[in-house]
Design goal:
alpha+beta, 6 strands, globular
C-alpha cells in the first residue's frame, strides 16, 4: 500500500508510461522523462529521453495492439530522489504479415526518479528481462537479436 502522495505520484507515472506506450502517446512519455534520462531495455544504454522514445517507437510502431501490465510495485522515496521496482508483463500482437502472431515478455523495471518543480520525473529505467514467449519478429527482433 502506498503511504504518501510522493509514492502515489511515482506509481501513477509508472502506469502513465505503460498506458502511453500502448496508446503510442510519445509526448506523454517525454513529459515524464527528464531530457537527459538514461535507459537500458536490453539493447544498449540510451542517454536521452529522445533516444528512449525512439527505441520504444522502433518496437511498438511496427506491431499491432500492445498491453503493458504493471504490478508488485515497490517505491522508496529519499528526499528529492526515489527508486522504484515494478513487474511488467507485456503482450504485443502482430500486424501486417505477422497478423495473428504474439510476442510476450516478463520483466522488472528498475527506475530512478527526481522530484522537480513540476512533479516526479524519471531519470533512469532498466528493464530486467525474466523471459520471452512467442514470435520476436512482432517487435522487429531478427534471429541475431537485433532490431530490423
Amino acid at each position: 500500500m502506498l503511504n504518501g502522495s510522493d509514492e502515489w505520484d511515482i506509481y501513477s507515472n509508472i502506469v502513465r508510461i505503460a498506458r502511453a506506450m500502448d496508446q503510442r502517446n510519445w509526448a506523454a512519455i517525454e513529459k515524464i522523462l527528464t531530457p537527459n534520462a538514461t535507459g537500458d531495455f536490453g539493447t544498449g544504454v540510451m542517454s536521452s529521453s529522445s533516444e528512449i522514445v525512439c527505441l520504444l517507437r522502433g518496437f511498438l510502431d511496427i506491431c499491432g495492439p500492445t498491453q503493458h501490465l504493471i504490478g508488485s510495485v515497490l517505491i522508496d522515496v529519499d528526499g528529492l530522489r526515489a527508486t522504484s521496482q515494478a513487474y511488467v508483463a507485456d503482450t504485443h500482437l502482430g500486424a501486417g504479415d505477422l497478423d495473428g502472431a504474439v510476442f510476450r515478455t516478463l520483466g522488472d523495471y528498475h527506475d530512478s526518479w527526481i522530484r522537480t518543480p513540476t512533479g516526479w520525473r524519471l531519470t533512469h529505467r532498466k528493464k530486467h528481462h525474466a523471459g520471452f514467449v512467442g514470435n520476436p519478429l512482432v517487435v522487429g527482433f531478427t534471429e541475431g537479436g537485433s532490431t530490423q
